[in-house]
């Protein structure tokens, strides 16, 4: 009896030290978007364009690669969730892959020949979580201001803010959970971008303009 | 007692709570709660569109301003009084602008836009804008799938980070695509659409027809967004 109590206490002490150690360690997450080659978006209905993408990280100073926090039972921050790749690069790569998956060419901003320039001001890329009765709800959010310009004369074709969120129910908030939710938010972000009628319309107008320039 | 006996005698039932918890652990709830597959999309030949709403035009301006002075100064009672005051202020704005709507039928406008976008895609043999949700009636019209859209909120909302009282059009939509043969839901999506075109609230008082124009343009964008989500799964 005494031995089994000692064993139980030992397990409890070991478990609390292991789990609290995890709670005080930063979660390092790999954020990336992989398009499905077989799945096309409305961007594929637009004749191929040459597009440049410029992403600016306009989040608060000092946020760097932070994308979430680990909290203790009192709501105090114990550690950070951090992206292994700079967030502006994550968003740039995601949009580039989506555009290329739909037959458009993405070039450097300094390239002379471009049909459309896309500017992205990243305002927020964050995950948070709330305790519910039987689960923890994790929410990943991306906010960005997106504008599309005619590179020749810098006319704004369209400009609007975009928000995408991804929710996931979990039993434990682990490093994998942060990564899953943040990547889910990135998928929603790309999906919203590629289906937003304002953006699709602006690219379609640019393609029409390109054809009329060639005909002339 | 009966429950206890059943649980003790059926070991598989004992596992049920753990199974529920396990399944709960990985349940994703996103804007699109049921994704449409390419196969299911190709099965749809005759599509009926029905849009409904039980909601009136709404203005959320005071309720979205980021202050909580009442709560900070007077605690819970202060917060409740402040919430009530904000709700009253928004209610006055709703009454004020509603007279510019002239019996604007938001469900009809959205349905017409959805019909236009779905029909022009040429993805289905037939697209019909219908005014019944009853499956039997829809089947009688030769429809095999129904796109049911519910408008949960529509109107104007405060623009975030705006310096003055600037508002934008908002639609909060729930959409569901059902196969009528087995009533299965093949696509389900919740959309909170903000059109991003912020303008001073006072413009809606001073410019004739602006409110209807802005709401209709946002309805067209929402409809196009829903159409894109369905047609490109």
Low-confidence blocks of residues of chain A? none
Distance between the termini of chain B: 50 Å
The CATH C-level class name of chain A:
Alpha Beta
Average pLDDT, all residues of chain A: 89
Low-confidence region ranges of chain B: 18-30
Radius of gyration of chain A: 22 Å
Task: Provide the spatial order of strands within the biggest beta sheet of chain A.
Answer: 5-2-6-7-8
CATH H level, superfamily name of chain A: ABC-type transport auxiliary lipoprotein component
Explain this structure to me?
The complex is a heterodimer of chains A (216) and B (233). Chain A has helices at 2-23, 87-101, 175-195, 197-215, and strands spanning 27-29, 50-57, 66-71, 77-83, 105-107, 116-131, 136-150, 155-170. Chain A is an alpha/beta fold. Chain A has a single domain, classed as Rossmann fold, CATH 3.40.50. The longest helix of chain A has 22 residues, at 2-23. The relative contact order of chain A is 0.17. Chain B is α/β, with parallel strands linked by helices. Chain B has helices at 2-9, 11-14, 16-25, 38-43, 69-98, 106-120, 135-140, 202-206, 210-231; strands at 28-30, 32-34, 46-53, 58-60, 126-129, 145-158, 166-179, 184-194, 199-200. In chain B, strands 2, 3, 4, 5, 6, 7, 8 and 9 form an eight-stranded mixed sheet that branches. In chain B, a hairpin with a 7-residue loop joins strand 6 (145-158) and strand 7. In chain B, helix 6 (106-120) crosses helix 9. The longest helix of chain B has 30 residues, at 69-98. The radius of gyration of chain B is 23 Å and the shape is elongated. Strand 8 of chain A pairs antiparallel with strand 1 of chain B, so a sheet runs across the interface.
